[in-house]
Structures are given as C-alpha cells and as structure tokens.
Amino acid sequence: MLVFEEIAQDDNQRIAGDENVWQLARDINEYHASDEARHIAFGRVLLDEMWNRSSPQWTEDQQKQIADY
Fold first, then answer.
1. Handedness of CA 14, 32, 42, 61 (dihedral sign)
2. Fewest CB atoms within 10 Å of the CB: 12, 13, 37, 53?
3. Alpha carbons 63 and 4: distance in angstroms, whole number
4. What sign for the dihedral angle of Cα 3, 49, 54, 67?
5. Is the pTM of this model over 0.90?
C-alpha cells in the first residue's frame, strides 16, 4: 500500500502544479497531496517498526531478500 501512496503523492503534486488543469481539480489534488503525505509518513514509521520487530528472527539471507524487495 505504501508504494501506491508514493505514486499517488507524486501524481497529486504534479497535477496540483499544472496550470493547464482546472483550478478546482488542482485544489483537490493539492489537498490530496497533503493528505497522502500523512499516510506516507505513517506507513514509513509502521514499516520501520515491523522491520525492527521481525527482522531479528530472520537469517541474514532472508533479511537481504526482503530488504532488496
């Protein structure tokens, strides 16, 4: 889900700054970009917490596989 939030954040920022887009749509995308930023921050903290709790139980190879993914 975090990957989707990152992609949506980029799209929302791009559209919000595009002067060829209707102002109302730009405003909505600007609001969504702000909202996505909160989701992304939460997702990164959660992912870090999950990694810190779970990864010590894995082998180095498993940790590398997951980190690379």
1. negative
2. 53
3. 23
4. positive
5. no
